[in-house]
Amino acid sequence: MTGSLNANAGPRIRYTAEEGAPYETITVDKLTPIIGAELGGVDLSKPLSNRQQDEIHRALAENLVIFFRDQVLTPEQHMAFGRLFGELHVHPAAPHEPGMPEMMRIHSDKNSPRANGEGWHTDVSCEVEPPMGSILHIKTCPPRGGDTLFANMYAAYDALSDRMKAYLDGMIALHDGEPVYRGLFKPIGVADKAEYPRAEHPVVRTHPVTGRKCLYVNAGFTSRLLGVPRDEGDAVLRYLYQHMENPLFQCRFRWRENSIAFWDNRCAQHRAMWDYWPHTRSGHRVTVKGDRPF
């Protein structure tokens, strides 16, 4: 596999490796043949060698979401790891740590009206330049439940019929943050903003590293298809959302204390399960800026 990130993706922007070639500085244990891998042999609290950085880039490109266990990180170390992949993104609505706008708080307990990310989505796709990836560090886990599901949007696109691929070719969708974020965080004291981002993106996106096509609509943010009647567009989106949820495209990650998940928002969707009430699940997320989909 050969690829290159664009100029926004951080100081180490290239890798060259054949998919399936052995890794030298990390271990890679796939969760499924389609998506997800647990990485070992690396301590993210310590400086990474150039070779380790390259192999983590490669593992993310090949597996779409990668996981690390037993990682004890300070907020500064968490952000430093994210910056290896690019400039950090500031969420347009969610709460963050004081003085650290890039450090998003993820917290649900017995008093929470909802949990972060309960429906299938890709993070903040309503922005003109949506995030490249998200790095979630969970420090407190419920005794059971609280898993996160991830789905491969390359596989979802590849499984479409040729007629559907032709129909979607060149089609644009509107992604709107207003109905998602307006009032969402008021119960925890976060005031609404005057406006929230919205953007138009291709329904079929080309990944800037792998060059592969993937579906880039999601039930969280995509409000409609442009250029077709509303009822037709709504019916197509319903079909695509149902199609994307095929378990054959998925993996499921069981959290433990001090686990990390790093997912590629450009080609994967995720869904957090809130099946652990009244227990607590808590941690932090940093998100890496991306580029405009094409």
Automatic annotation (TrEMBL):
InterPro entries: AtsK-like (IPR051323), TauD-like_sf (IPR042098), TauD/TfdA-like (IPR003819). Residues 28-287 form the TauD/TfdA-like domain. Signal peptide: none annotated. It holds the Pfam family TauD. Keywords: Dioxygenase, Iron, Metal-binding, Oxidoreductase. GO terms for molecular function: dioxygenase activity. The keyword Oxidoreductase applies. The keyword Iron applies. It comes from the Bacteria. Belongs to the TfdA dioxygenase family. This is TauD/TfdA family dioxygenase. It comes from Reyranella aquatilis.
